[in-house]
Amino acid sequence: MSDTTQQEQDQEFPTIYRNMMAVGLLGACYQVHDDAQKVNDAVEATLADVAPFRMYRALAQGIGGDGAYASEQIGKRLEESPDDDKAKVALAVSLMLAGNPEWKGLIENVLATSSDQVARAAATEVIDYLRALPVH
Questions:
Q1: Rounded distance, CA 136 to CA 64, Å?
Q2: Mean pLDDT score of the chain
């Protein structure tokens, strides 16, 4: 998202609209997939630029154990822009949260080939976070 203040964001989206976004994303996180899909589809239908919301939605659905949306939506983005390493990291995180082992290859690809420092830093942070988790 751009560098906007909270007041500018409040003017961009009325409270009820932001609440719908929150409900849809939380529904995805808490595995209420059918209801969340209806709300999220309604939100997407009204956005001029759906890309940022789709990233959030992909991550929320990954948290809820569903990596299919991320694979589909971010996969389309990667077909159009195969060098979008930030999108690869977002897809990897969503797949990782959903329990899909394909995330590892995406992170490895970014770390091995990317010149995008932001994407490389994000991929490194994912690995560092996983290393810091206690293993029982």
A1: 23
A2: 89
Phi, psi (5° rounding) for residue 126? Answer: -60, -50
Instruction: Check if the beta carbon of residue 53 is closer than 8 Å to that of residue 20.
Output: no
DSSP H/E element including 52: helix 51-63
Query: What is the helix (H) or strand (E) element at residue 117, kind and residue range?
Result: helix 117-132
Please report the pLDDT score of residue 1 as a whole number: 45
Tell if the pTM clears 0.85, that is, is over it: no
Amino acid (one-letter) located at 72: E
Query: Which pLDDT band holds residue 26 (cuts at 50, 70, 90)?
Result: very high
Closest by CA to 91, choosing from 115, 124, 113, 58, is 58
d(Cα 56, Cα 50) in Å, to the nearest integer?
Answer: 10
